[in-house]
């Protein structure tokens, strides 16, 4: 049974500007060390950061909480060995997912020159 869905789209230029303006302060507020390391290895790192930002927003929408009582750091989006993105929750986001009885999180992210988008579907037994 689908327990929640979320989708978000982000302008890559917006994230690039925030990174240029605030540098590590922005990166460390939003992303985990593993996410930063992954994205910085990419030729177009701003698009990779934007895609993960959209993914985190989509997770918060699927949980039905928005940023209330949550931390960006509690949502981590990494890729498996084949490149498939996966979501790892911790802290209050993990607690909320348990409250909802979420057993699986499906995520799809994509980016192109100007925009990045992410969709999340949370599944479980209600």
From TrEMBL:
This is Holo-[acyl-carrier-protein] synthase. Mg(2+) binds at residues 8, 57. HAMAP family: AcpS. The lineage of its organism: Bacteria, Bacillati, Bacillota, Clostridia, Halanaerobiales. NCBIfam families: acpS (TIGR00516), pantethn_trn (TIGR00556). Transfers the 4'-phosphopantetheine moiety from coenzyme A to a Ser of acyl-carrier-protein. One of its GO terms (cellular component) is cytoplasm. It is found in: Cytoplasm. One of its GO terms (biological process) is fatty acid biosynthetic process. Its EC number is 2.7.8.7. Keywords: Cytoplasm, Fatty acid biosynthesis, Fatty acid metabolism, Lipid biosynthesis, Lipid metabolism, Magnesium, Metal-binding, Transferase. It comes from the Bacteria. It catalyses: apo-[ACP] + CoA = holo-[ACP] + adenosine 3',5'-bisphosphate + H(+). Its cofactor is Mg(2+). It comes from Halanaerobium kushneri. The gene is acpS.
